[in-house]
Amino acid sequence: MDIRTLCLGILSLGEATGYEIRKMVTDGSFSFFSEASYGSIYPALTQMTADGLVACRAESQTGRPDKKVYSLTADGRKALEQSLTAAPGPDRHRSDFLAALLFAEAVSPDRINALIHDRISEHDEQIALLKGHLKDEQGTVARFVLEYGLVMQEAARRFLKENRARLSPAPEKQTG
Amino acid sequence: MDIRTLCLGILSLGEATGYEIRKMVTDGSFSFFSEASYGSIYPALTQMTADGLVACRAESQTGRPDKKVYSLTADGRKALEQSLTAAPGPDRHRSDFLAALLFAEAVSPDRINALIHDRISEHDEQIALLKGHLKDEQGTVARFVLEYGLVMQEAARRFLKENRARLSPAPEKQTG
DNA sequence: GAACACATGTAAGAAGTTACATGATTAT
DNA sequence: ATAATCATGTAACTTCTTACATGTGTTC
Predict the structure, then answer these.
(1) Which of A58, A156, B54, B102 is disulfide-compatible with A66, CB 3.0–4.6 A?
(2) What is the tens place of the pLDDT at every residue in A104-142?
(3) How many folded domains does chain A comprise?
(4) Separation of A23 CA and D4 C1' (Å)
(5) Which structural domain, as residue segments, surrounds residue A120?
(6) E-strand spans in A46-133?
(7) Nearest residue: Cα versus C1' of C25
(8) Do residues A7 and A59 both lie within one domain?
(9) Same domain, A133 and A71
């Protein structure tokens, strides 16, 4: 998902400033599946304003730069739809964790346990985060996505917990 | 995961040519979580050879460019270990599908069903692929990763199937 | 004989991150 | 007073993809 589509999508849920968009993708519900920096968000918004995909309303503030509140235009909505429906493709699970794990065997057996342990903690945190978000009233689709994320996290967590021993077998002191 | 680490990791499982590495990341088990093009793989291998992280053995062939078989050096193994254990971070599930779904509500209700349908088919394909790979004898960790992927796919699939109706409720013709 | 698999490599371009630049307000 | 939050923006850099360049062997 490129920055433009991401911004359009977020704006489709309501107007926002560049600063707010950034917060959503780094801390908010969006952090689950995306990331973006100021260096990409601001230029994208400027360009899309020029292209007529978003509208910009300036709010004056004392002692701060004008707050630029962006909202989706009809053209922007069309562009978003095109982006989302254009040849979806395989949607790979680009996960550093999976890759690291796959290669960890060749590196150091001790690390595997640590990696898995960290990942389980992360899953726990994300599960808590997602459950927190679910309390807020959200649109049907947003809820759906959060629950989907939750299901995946919980499945991953359970599997990791149940299968840890296979990777880092404890020294066989007490046998069955 | 950057290309260098990816190549080092793959070479940690056994020697390979650039061509073979590319096949692995596009078609093989690695396709589940990564992707890379010739334009990044070949320069990475050349550079890492200069850096002493990999060794290159040339195999002459008739009618074809020399086959360059790369293997990991001790330094390469160290570099790999550092990469994998250096500040793992949150490991976001950068998924276009999740993003698209989250924004789909604002675009067109009809699309949601299509998106989910496609995704379920994709999950089915990947589940079949992973189960196929599991038949081959693999290292413990490789098996673990494949099974982890399988668990996630199956959880996702089940959830999507069971909850589709919530997103695109059929016209209420026959009630109760 | 057309297309695909094998096999390597380069150059141009896209897309994004990091770090910088600015500056007031608020919390520790 | 030191750091964090609010608020926008630019320039340099990194990283990767796309498309090109080359050429044989094999399959349909």
Answers:
(1) A58
(2) 777 776 777 777 777 777 777 777 776 776 666 556 656
(3) 2
(4) 15
(5) 96-167
(6) 54-59, 67-72
(7) A63
(8) yes
(9) no
